[in-house]
Each structure stands twice: as structure tokens, then as C-alpha cells.
């Protein structure tokens, strides 16, 4: 099987929510679910001081859907929602 590049968009509950703490907790979940691999985090401005956290990571397609990972990230304190916004097959 090939690898997939997944983008997970995490919305905080409030503009003053600590996105760095959420990123650390989400990365722990990623390490336990998909293991070591390339990861990237970006802050996306939404509106009125609210920012989203986009986590991009590589996952083996054999592990199945990334939706259970999003469900676990939703349980992090301070997270309003987490959804998979992009799945692409890695080439190369």
C-alpha cells in the first residue's frame, strides 16, 4: 500500500485557547496512532482573532480511515472540532 498525506483541521473553543498545547497533545495522539513520520503544523487565521490549527501528517493507507484520529483529537480540552479536510496519496 501507499502512504497518504492527511490534513486535519482543528478548531479551538475560543480565540485565546493555547494552540501550542493542543498541537502537543494532538501530536501525541498521532505518534500513538500512526507512529513516526513527517508532520507539519500551520496556524490558519479564521476571523476576529480566531485561528485554526492545521496538522498535516503522513499515514500508511493500510491503517484505514483517518477519521478515528480526528475523533480522538476532538476529545482534547479546548478543541471545539477536528475534521479531516484533505487526503492525498503520496507519490514518490
How many β-strands, per DSSP?
Answer: 4
| Strand order in the sheet with the most strands | 2-3-1-4
Write down the domain tally: 1
Topology as a string of helices (H) and strands (E): EHEEHE
Distance between the termini: 13 Å
- Architecture per CATH nomenclature, i.e. the level-2 architecture: 2-Layer Sandwich
As residue ranges, the low-confidence spans are none
Largest sheet: 4 strands, antiparallel
> What percent of residues are in strands?
35-45%
Query: In the CATH hierarchy, what is the superfamily?
Result: Ribosomal protein S6/Translation elongation factor EF1B
CATH topology-level name: Alpha-Beta Plaits
Q: Which descriptor suits the 3D outline?
A: globular
Helix content: 25-40%
Arithmetic mean pLDDT: 93
Amino acid at each position: 500500500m501507499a502512504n497518504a498525506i492527511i490534513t486535519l483541521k482543528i478548531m479551538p473553543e475560543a480565540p485565546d485557547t493555547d494552540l501550542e498545547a493542543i498541537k502537543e497533545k494532538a501530536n501525541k495522539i498521532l505518534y500513538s496512532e500512526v507512529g513516526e513520520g513527517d508532520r507539519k503544523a500551520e496556524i490558519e487565521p479564521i476571523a476576529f482573532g480566531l485561528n485554526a490549527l492545521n496538522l498535516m501528517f503522513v499515514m500508511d493507507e493500510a491503517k484505514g480511515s483517518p477519521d478515528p484520529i480526528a475523533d480522538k483529537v476532538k476529545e482534547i480540552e479546548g478543541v471545539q472540532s477536528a475534521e479531516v479536510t484533505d487526503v492525498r496519496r503520496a507519490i514518490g
